[in-house]
Amino acid sequence: MLYDQLFVSLERARWNLSRDIDFDAIEPAKLSRQWILDVREVCLTQLAALSATETFLGDFRTDIDFCSFVSVWLYEEMEHHLVLRKYLEHLGEAVEESELPRLRVSAGEVPAIDALTLRFFREQRLAQRYAALAATAPEPVLGRIFTILAAGEARHAAAYATYLRRAVKRNPAALPSVLRLGLWTLRGADDPASPAAAAAGPSAAQRREDCHYIRRMQGLYRLLAADSTMVAEEELPALRPAAAGAL
Asked: Which residue pairs, CB below 8 angstroms and at least 24 apart, start in 68-72?
């Protein structure tokens, strides 16, 4: 099972909330009001992992391997939420529990392969955004937190890539759907209000007219199907999610 190896590798890299973050060293004066609001937003959006977990446990109910991994992923994602919530509490900006239920928004139903693909790309994007926030954070403790979170999201993306690779190996017909959805996701507009998006450079929307953009998808293709023939650009015209067969 992939879970056996992933559990060990994630455990070895895992950080400790009580030991690795010095909340007493926070320097509130270095944070603008906008930064505090942005940290709050990131903290709350981490709760999206709850809905994603519900979806995965339903769609992959017979895949004990993947569902086992999801349990570890949820633990780490909720730790991301908690460290940011604790950071805000030390700033006197506590998140009230009454705010949280409204964030339990369920995603619309999509094919299982699409849900897996979207999560892979979301983890990559979060890693990049958190790295950008770490590099620009005006307060050192916050910079350390986002550095830790960026590394965690990157590990999650790598883990999801292993399950995507397995899905494609089991069902090669799913590969075109994965690539189409990946291209659609990468070309989707980023949130211009996000300081992370601004720090990360040109958005996906600004790259939309790049006619050679699909060539950058070849890295993903190699990752998922290293022994297959490359897909030509004209074979992937659709820029929207497409259903694929069963995993």
From this structure: 68/1, 68/3, 68/7, 69/2, 69/3, 69/6, 69/7, 69/159, 69/163, 72/3, 72/6, 72/7, 72/10
pLDDT tens digits, 148-200 = 999 999 999 999 999 998 998 888 888 888 887 877 776 663 443 333 333 33
Neighbours of 102 (CB within 10 A): 9
Look up residue 184 and give its two tokens.
């659609």
- pLDDT, one tens digit per residue, over 68-93 is 999 999 999 999 999 999 999 999 99
DSSP state of 203: -
CATH number of 2-235: 1.10.620.20
Alpha carbons 90 and 144: distance in angstroms, whole number: 15
pLDDT grade, residue 39 (50/70/90)?
very high
Collapse the DSSP code of 8 into the 3-class scheme (helix H, G, I; strand E, B; otherwise coil) and give the result.
Answer: helix
The span from the CA of 31 to the CA of 24, in Å, is 15
What's the pTM value of the predicted model, to 2 decimals?
0.75
> If 0-12 CB within 10 Å is exposed, 13-18 middle and 19+ buried, where does residue 99 land?
exposed
Beta carbons of 231 and 168 less than 8 angstroms apart: no
178/126 Cα distance (integer angstroms): 19
